[in-house]
Structure formats: structure tokens, C-alpha cells
Amino acid sequence: MKKYILAITGASGSIFGVRLLEELLKLSEVHLVISSNTFPIIEDETGIDWTKEGAKGKGQKAKGKKPEDIIRRHFKTDRLFFYEDKDMEAPIASGSFKTDGMLVVPCSMKTLSGIANGYANNLIERAADVVIKEGRPLLLSPREMPFSAIHLENMLKLARLGVKIAPPVPAFYQKPKNIDDIVNFIVGKILDTFSIEHTLFKRWGG
Ligand SMILES: Cc1cc2nc3c(=O)[nH]c(=O)nc-3n(C[C@H](O)[C@H](O)[C@H](O)COP(=O)(O)O)c2cc1C
Question: Ligand 1 — pocket residues by CB below 6 A?
């Protein structure tokens, strides 16, 4: 079974990361890191709160319930491994832990910069640094509007190293009818770059 690292960072578009996670788990083992900045954005944009399921009052955390427990119970699978972004001792922080690549969806400009400059300041940046040094596939889905020259330079630097830069840009030849259609198209295109089978959209001419 293939083994992928998935990072979800604090850019808008967390729905792409969540949908991608659902798809990856169908066929593969997933090592998931969600940056601490991202949980409020996931809650704001999708309504999913992975930090306080079962909490009794507002802002109160359920006893003994960590995001890891909540996420694993939500997806009901033993193929999912979750790490906090400050956990620098996680297996994915080392090149000796073999994976089939990493996806950062969506990717904030801060994480993009950290990866482009080898900063390795948290587990996401370190895992990406490892994937690059080991020559394994890496895809980033940077989300910002508009991009500055700094963002573009960081993307170009990484693209020249073979990193796939795949911003969540929709196409309209699919005639999307709702947000789900747009999300499925973007996630399907991301899966295509890793040659992962899916039925998320109808192919042009197919
Ligand atoms: C609601 C919200 C939306 C954001 N959207 C973006 C975005 O689309 N792109 C981006 O680069 N940063 C965005 N940010 C800022 C990042 O969350 C911030 O730079 C954060 O430090 C990123 O950290 P991380 O990469 O470790 O998740 C957003 C922040 C908030 C609160």
C-alpha cells in the first residue's frame, strides 16, 4: 500500500485538504499534519471542529480528546496517522522513514517560504525538507490572491527542484454546478499528478 504525507496549512481552502484526505484514505496510508494555525480556519470554512468534539461548554476541550483521537474516530480507519506540527520526533521528520511523497494542500505563503528556504521550523517544513532531499515527490497547492514576487520566486525555486506547484485554480469546461464540483475537480487534478486513481470528475473527451 502506498504511504503519503498530507499537510494542511493555514491558507484559505482547507476544504481541499479535507477532501483530499478522504480520497487518499480510500487507497493508501496517510501521515497527516495539520498546522496549529489551521484548526480555526477548518472550523470557520467547513464547520468541522477537530479540537473540541464532545466539549461541554464554549471554548472547553473534552477531557482526553486530542485532535488525533477526534480525527481518527471521524475517519474510522487505522490507515491514518496524525502528528502535531510541533512534533519534531515524528517518523516523517526522518528520511529513513520511507514514503511515496508528500502533499501540502492548501499551502500558506508562510509554509511555502519555509519549504523554499529549507527553514524546517515545524514538522511540516521538516517533512517537506526531507522529501526534497530524498528526491521523493512533493506537491504544494499554494493559495493567495494576488501572488507577490516573493511568493512567485519561492514557487519558481521549488518548481526548478521538481516540486509540483498546483494552486487550486478551477476550470470551467466541466461546467461545475456547485462548490463540491469545483473542489472535486481540483482534488482530482492533484491526485492525477501522483497517478492516484479517482472518479472525481469526468475527463475531457473521455
Ligand atoms: C481566515 C484566514 C485565512 C487565511 N488565508 C490565507 C491564505 O489564503 N493564504 C496564506 O498564505 N495565508 C493565509 N492566512 C494566513 C496564515 O494562516 C498565516 O500566515 C499562518 O501563519 C500560516 O501558518 P502555517 O503555514 O503554519 O499554517 C489566513 C489566515 C486566516 C486567519
Answer: 9-12, 35, 37-38, 41, 44, 108-111, 143-144
Q: How confident is the model at residue 70 (pLDDT cuts 50, 70, 90)?
A: confident
Interval between CA 28 and ligand 1 midpoint (Å): 28
Q: What is the CATH number of the domain that holds 65?
A: 3.40.50.1950
Instruction: Note the pLDDT tens digit of each residue in 152-171.
Output: 999 999 999 999 999 999 99
Does any domain span residue 203?
A: no
Q: How many angstroms does the Cα of residue 13 sit away from the middle of ligand 1?
A: 10
What is the domain range of residue 26? Answer: 3-193
Q: What is the pLDDT of residue 64?
A: 53
205 within some domain: no
Burial 159-177 (b: 16+ CB within 10 A, else e): eeeebbbbbbeeeeebebe
Task: Let me know if residue 204 belongs to a domain.
Answer: no
CB 108 within 8 A of CB 10: yes
Amino acid identity of residue 28, one-letter, is S
Does residue 57 or residue 151 have the better pLDDT? 151
Query: Looking at ligand 1, which atom is closest to the CA of residue 145?
Result: 8
Domain count, the chain: 1
